[in-house]
Amino acid sequence: MLLTISTNIRPATELGFLLHKHPDRYQIFNLSFGKAHVFYPQANEETCSACLLLDIDAIAMAKGRSREYGHLLSQYVNDRPYVASSFMSVAISKVFRSAMSGICNDRTELVETEIPLTTRIDVLPVRGAEGLVNRLFEPLGYSVESIPHQLDTEFEDWGASPYCSVTIKGTKKLSELLTHLYVLIPVFDNQKHYFVSDDEIEKLISKSEDWLKNHPEKDFVIRRYLKNRPSLVRQAMARLVGDEGASAETVSGDRNEEQLEKTMSLNDQRLGAVVAVLKASGARQVIDLGCGEGKLLRKLLSDWQFERIVGMDVSIRSLEIASKRLKLERLPPKQAERVELIHGSLMYRDRRFEGFDAAAVVEVIEHLDPPRLAAFERVLFQYAKPKTIVLTTPNCEYNVKWESLPAGQFRHSDHRFEWTREEFQAWANRIASEYSYQVRFLPIGDDDPVVGSPTQMGVFERE
Description:
Elements: E1 2-7, H1 14-19, E2 27-31, E3 34-43, E4 48-56, H2 58-65, H3 86-95, H4 97-100, H5 108-111, E5 115-125, H6 132-137, E6 143-150, E7 160-172, H7 174-184, H8 199-208, H9 218-225, H10 230-241, H11 243-250, H12 252-262, H13 266-281, E8 285-289, H14 295-301, E9 308-313, H15 316-326, H16 333-336, E10 339-343, E11 358-362, H17 373-384, E12 388-394, H18 421-434, E13 437-444, E14 455-462
Parallel strand pairs: 8-9, 8-11, 9-10, 11-12
Antiparallel strand pairs: 1-4, 1-5, 2-3, 3-4, 5-7, 6-7, 12-14, 13-14
Helix pairs in contact: 3-7, 8-10, 10-11, 13-14
């Protein structure tokens, strides 16, 4: 992937001072995912162009991630080494850190000067609505030229690819251009090569607070930048434009799902079923993986069979809400010592997940990207491996029973998939066989003779 920044300011070679990269030197920078090369194909008084070329070590990355991509071949055959994505954003922040921060002791006045800049990105994966490049860059004052590429010029019937060579032109401070690129490049294909956590909010706010809050596509940018994780999107919106503005747009998915299930109190039935299974298992130490705002924890806390209760979630904000709802600060000492909230992720092995009699994973896996299920499986079934695992997920066959839910739409805007009963059972049986568990399946909610129940539960018992 190649990023080229050019200017015709006089003298144009001042670009080298701003980037802290000498035009006469070819430089190589080692990154965790490969190498970044900086060079100047043209550098004279009239025109200066600086190139950032990324060489991704796809083989090393595939070996390091093992089965995380799910399909074996896709670990080695994909577009990541060739398209501008989050890899490019990381490279910009590492290689051009001082320039992006607006630091140049040799040209202090030039740092704050808007200069004519032309940037070409080869190539940008544009996955989204038509005119997306224009919608994101033009409100920032750039003119945009986008050249789409065919999948194969010899086979025109295959149609256009999602890849474009994009050129943007504008009179900007160099630091502004670099921050715009840093934030917006990963937004185009809605993928990141690393786990998105609360830290990403700080990166987004620090790099975009001055311009994103007034951008007409700010909601879209925030959702894509944070990989559509509702809790993170809510926090970012709240910090950027205020709580009122955040609540209207970003919590709609939560409310829609709650409204669908409200008529049958499905959530109460779901939590009741989970508690019943945990009690019947004889478990005394239970961990709720993806505890959210603590609804299951509250039910467990009211039953003294459960001597140790731990709630884990990736969202700091959800854990704060859970703490308030459980009133941890006001619990009697004996109650308080039974419960603990921890921040973590289901994508990485964590020894804090080990040693429990049972684990609950309630309406969580459908929020994971399918390629990440393999990592989740290892974390829970191979490493944590509690004696009992209670896992629930929606049954998409039941969706036809809700008239307010359009055909083909998921119950929640953050769901990455919704399984049929056959798909869920095939996955669960495979996992049970691979990790030495027995699994049985139970319906939750109204069990329709044709489409089944709205929620399906798998109860795994370690052999």
